[in-house]
Amino acid sequence: xxxxxxxxxxxxxxxxxxxxxxxxxxxxxxxxxxxxxxxxxxxxxxxxxxxxxxxxxxxxxxxxxxxxxxxxxxxxxxxxxxxxxxxxxxxxxxxxxxxxxxxxxxxxxxxxxxxxxxxxxxxxxxxxxxxxxxxxxxxxxxxxxxxxxxxxxxxxxxxxxxxxxxxxxxxxxxxxxxxxxxxxxxxxxxxxxxxxxxxxxxxxxxxxxxxxxxxxxxxxxxxxxxxxxxxxxxxxxxxxxxxxxxxxxxxxxxxxxxxxxxxxxxxxxxxxxxxxxxxxxxxxxxxxxxxxxxxxxxxxxxxxxxxxxxxxxxxxxxxxxxxxxxxxxxxxxxxxxxxxxxxxxxxxxxxxxxxxxxxxxxxxxxxxxxxxxxxxxxxxxxxxxxxxxxxxxxxxxxxxxxxxxxxxxxxxxxxxxxxxxxxxxxxxxxxxxxxxxxxxxxxxxxxxxxxx
Length: 452
Prior knowledge:
The protein is of the alpha+beta class and 452 residues long. It is built from 10 helices and 13 strands. Helix 1 (2-60) packs antiparallel against helix 2 (66-87).
């Protein structure tokens, strides 16, 4: 009897095991199908939004009706952000879509700025018209590439394709990581010349232009700027006079070649450092990164950037936002005057996340807009400004900030950071008139903070 009981018990276990295995397999297949369907839906929604964006931007080039412009710019703004959201859901190598994601963000920002002008009855400037034409041409190219990917016989987002692509990426064979990765990389490579608009923090890259920049100070010598380059970067490199310019960055610069000094690679150029001929200010530094996998956290890289700036004329600037792109991180530093943030005065520092080496710096915005500002005009109190917020909003933080306006002027504002639903916003109210100057939506992820 005991023997029969054991046999019966084992038989029951066997049946349960087969049943559980079948259930697990079915459940696994259902999960895979759900993942495939969700990603396929995101892709086709992306194709649809980009196609609509292409049509809308094309129509906006030929309309003269103010009400029509408002509708078109509003729809462009909406479709750009829908497309960006769907793009972020695709399971592809991040670098393959980073520039495309930024491009869609730029389309949203730009259409929003045009919408504001249209509502106020303002016409587009010649420069804005040219930018709109460029963006329309680029989004048409993106739409065409996406349609080609959609017409492939193989499902680029099948479970099998995703696993195969991930293995290629893990093995370092990124260029062979599937049709989707290849197509989005091609799109990204074709977007390099798109005009730079607002991203990685409030007012970043705002109002850049090629207008001449006036810098005060005495004429520097080659000896002075070579010594300054060594002070900033250290004595592990060689520094040689490379050339000088009368117009680069809008003002005259000396360009210093930065070379390796080790016995194995002595004399190899790893970067170039521009200094203003007037005053000897660091203007721009560009070097190559290692191209290796990131090993440092963003906070560690911010510390490296702060240490770099401590040896320059920009040591008093405060880190604000950062943006991770591949194996590098770019940190934006902002000037402060008294208790006021001066957004136009910014310096960007790029750090190689594999070893913490600074591989880039851009101080053109700081040099262009830096000046002593007076805030003597009668201002609203914090309480008076807060009372002008929409009903029910309680600010998480309040500070004062000088922000650039679309017309090239500046405004002293109260910066309110508020939360509504699942989003954070920055609301800028004019500190003198109380008028709303701007609203930015804040989005943060592992790659940094973006404002829309």
